[in-house]
Amino acid sequence: MSSAPIRTLLIANRGEIARRIIRTAHEMGIRTVAVFAEPDRLSPHVLEADVSIPLKGETALETYLDREEILRAAEWQGADAIHPGYGFLSERASFARAVQAAGLTWVGPPPDAITTMGDKVLAKQTAADAAVPTLPWALLAGDDPAAWTAQVAAVPFPLIVKAAAGGGGRGMRLVHEPDALAEAVLAAQREAASSFGNATVYAETWVPAGRHIEIQVLADAHGNIVHLGERECSIQRRHQKLVEEAPSTAVDPTLRHQMTEAAMGLARAIGYEGLGTVEFLVDDSGDSPAFWFLEMNTRLQVEHPVTEAITGLDLVRLQLQVAQGEPLPMTQSDIHFRGHAVEVRVCAEDPAAGWLPSTGRITRWEPGPTPGVRYDAGVLSGSWVSPHYDSLLAKAIAFADTRIEASARLARALRELTIHGVTTNREYLYDVLTSDDFRDGLTRTDFVDRHPPLPDWPEGEDQPMERQWQRFNAVTGPHLAAVALVAQRRRRAASPWPFVPSGWRNVGGRTTELQPGSAFWQLLDAPVGFASQSITYRSQGRDWHVSYTHVSRDHPLERARRLEAVRRGDPAVADAIYSVAISGPTGSTTTLVELVPVEEADGSATVVVHFGRRGHRCTVHWEGTTWYVNSPLGQSRFDEVPPFSSAERVESSGGPVAPVPGRVVAVNVAAGDQVEAGDTLVVLEAMKVEHRVTTPGPATVLEVLVASGDTVDAHQLLVRLESREVPADPHPESDR
After folding, report:
1. How far is residue 161's CA from residue 451's CA, in Å, rounded to a whole number?
2. Strand 240-246 vs strand 340-347: parallel, antiparallel, or unpaired?
3. In angstroms, rounded to a whole number, what is the distance separating the alpha carbons of residues 102 and 62?
4. Which domain holds residue 577?
């Protein structure tokens, strides 16, 4: 480690972690230099650094992984240190050596330690030599599937294939049976080569319901080492973490002592310096918990804020101090743990659609007012989410005296967070934090399998109508009413003929008249105007028809509002009570709705919506014909369907299309091939994750329209297919 003070720091990263490093560096009086790819030109980290340097290109390989270009930027700006953040070049020993060879300070561990722990195979061997427990594993060498089967003979199924140079959940495939091994190895090799430049993979025993527990360690160049407690990161999708917390509910003092000693022992064995994380898999299903070494991340972790919250330490500051050659400012006895912290990763992805990433412009980003919540965000209103990089938008971290308080605070903050323009996992994260299993600490690695994300309006017997109706009554109904009535107020205010009812047409349309004599009218027991207007909105791929009729001045509720206004001395007369009928996936309902304006601005309105007997404060935002509603109930998006559009949209493409923008990494078929339902046709990579495009049924491949390496847009046709009928079985099962 260098002993020279750091005066100018180049951050070789982007997004929220670049902003996080810039914040601490500025507090220490250090000048900061940001680098950026073209899609990040106006990103927050670029705007907040003292100076920013463009990199040539758009993809990660062309920009943030181009070490020569980054070193040239550091030389040009007179930087004397480089902080790699996490991901990208943070665990490339060759880059660390190049930084040091250029006479710069490397904010990270010694390159030899990165080499040892960066090769997961070598790391396992080193851990075993240091008496750290490891799971059964085997290197998958060569390119012969038969050899792979022989190599894993001592590793029981199910097993998991992992990238030897991997991290962040990439280059990993779960294999339940030997027949699926070859495809998993090929996919893991391909993803590992793309993400890390190294296609080496190995197999390891899979523990289906363990806990992912990691120990934060910190060492200096003077032989001092401490641990900063544990974090639990068991709630994962696609082997990537969603929720992290500290401390873990599964770790008692005895287990904590065993794991922290093992972690520090491993760090000592490799001469570690700086900040690092030793990850373990814990099986707490028996009477005596067992743990095994998984890997060591030789960098700052995404989830470091929860450790900062319970220790009161700034881990980036400590990294920079150690990099300057300073001794640790504390000993183990000086470190005290207080309270509980929970972090969630807010990502641009759609959990209900197989975690497909979402790209585009974030039109609105507004955290709420809940105290005790920290946001490490890489985006602002107006930021562009590119398919070239990770889907992580921000981390939200809540701290409180107890776990229950921290998770409740974070759940409330998620409900208050306004995100418009891209689809995110926010609602799923809220569901996780408020679930009984999370509350009870049952957060093992199978959590997402046991609590899968579900569409808002799923079909099938496994999702009874009662669940759908509860969600409609709780969220969608009030939000739809708010949108429809705010839209009505806007049209009425803009009408050149105020005497004409809002939404009036001189030709037929989709208007649904409310008929007197129905049970609803008998319930009201009062005359109501019959000029009903109707609007159709699309949400979650389903159409919702909203009809509303202004209640007449003779209705008892309207008269009561008028009398109340007179008693208050308010010259304004209540004019916001409607009967609203909504029909959609759950059926139909009709109720009284009162709309009370609170404030209105360009593009938004805040109103109180009394939906039946319940009042909800809703903020309605509109962007053209797209409407967003945010309230304590959550967030909804509705797209207005033009009155003269076709009721049904017919799409005929002749084959599967790209679900997201991305890059083609594999084409598995050729013209003339016969394919069956579920066969993989094309593999796409978007936001560092592979997506398999499969065939819906038996078909013949007529034409392949893409090749490996091509960049494709969302909804672009990939393969042209012709459906193929399968002959009926002449001897069905019932006849045998």
Report:
1. 24
2. antiparallel
3. 21
4. 465-641
